[in-house]
Amino acid sequence: MTTSSAVKPKVLRLGKIEFAQAKWDEVAKVAEVIDCTSQNRDEFFEDLKTKYSDITNIARTFASVKQTGRFDEELASHLPPSVKSVSHNGAGYDQIDPEPFSKRNIQVSNVTIPVEAPTADTAVFLLLSTLRNYQIGHNLLVEGKWPIGKCGGAPLGRLPESQVVGILGMGGIGRAIRDRLKPFGFQKIIYHNRSRLSKDLEQDTEYVSFDELISSSDIILISIPLNPKTHHSINKEVISKMKDGVILINTARGAIINEQELIVELKNGKVGSFGSDVFEFEPEVPKELYNLPNVVSLPHMGTHAFEAIKNMEEFVAENVLEYLYTGKVKTIVPEQYNLEIKAEPLVKKA
Fold this sequence. Notes:
Elements: E1 2-3, E2 10-14, H1 21-30, E3 32-35, H2 41-49, E4 57-60, H3 65-68, H4 73-78, E5 85-88, H5 98-103, E6 107-109, H6 113-131, H7 134-142, E7 164-168, H8 172-181, E8 188-192, H9 199-202, E9 206-207, H10 210-216, E10 219-222, H11 236-240, E11 246-250, H12 259-267, E12 271-276, H13 287-290, E13 295-297, H14 306-326, E14 347-348
Parallel strand pairs: 2-3, 2-4, 4-5, 5-6, 7-8, 7-10, 8-9, 10-11, 11-12, 12-13
Antiparallel strand pairs: 1-14
């Protein structure tokens, strides 16, 4: 393999790589890979004028926001004109505002397939734990209350056969959740999406309006991206339209739910249980929320597995390689689907 010119493209890597060294070695064969050493946003802006002034592609991790801050309009304005793509390691990319990058014809990519299975597994765990009151039973056992009464006094749970499941957001993760729930024998699985899926993707789930999903589901799984339109889209008003005792599961982003209003609804029983891997101001989580007996909480563990992290890191490297070879990233974000792209490969294969 050779580059299309004597000078190799320069890929700026933000954040630590844990397990995908071999895949990144492939990138290093055709491009110069530079690890960002900037300690904060101001330093990053200065470094973009000097040692990063000719970078062509950027790869970033979720944690690298501590180095640079959000990828917003201000940051986009500081990027050198040589930058062609930004590849984010995560399904959710709320740390990036795609609009200013679109204006500069900088392609933004996220991670899709590698996050689907591990996130869906986490959603199923949270659903079963809340549905059957397993977490409550565990806590009662730890408190030494099992000898006092049957199952330690844990309230009766429910079986899937009586429950209507509503999946809010039927992208790759939502469909992976659906596929895992099917064998449990739920009464019905319904979904709402920005647009109805094709028959082959929809399978035997039923497409309904947002209002119908909210009002008719016993269990609601949130699997939509966080953006200005979805921020606090699950709030007191929306919860008031739900069934009494509804179970809410969130493996998307915490700020989709108005956390303070949720606490009130959990205390008064309108929301029967809440299972979540994400929180509005994580890693800070209100003690008032996680101490409630009807809450099952995890510290954002959806992709906290060796294989998941490795697969995600490799997917980011593949997005970079795809741009280098074709001039187009592998998984451009939905906001850029209509972006007019003039393919500009930076590397050609021998």
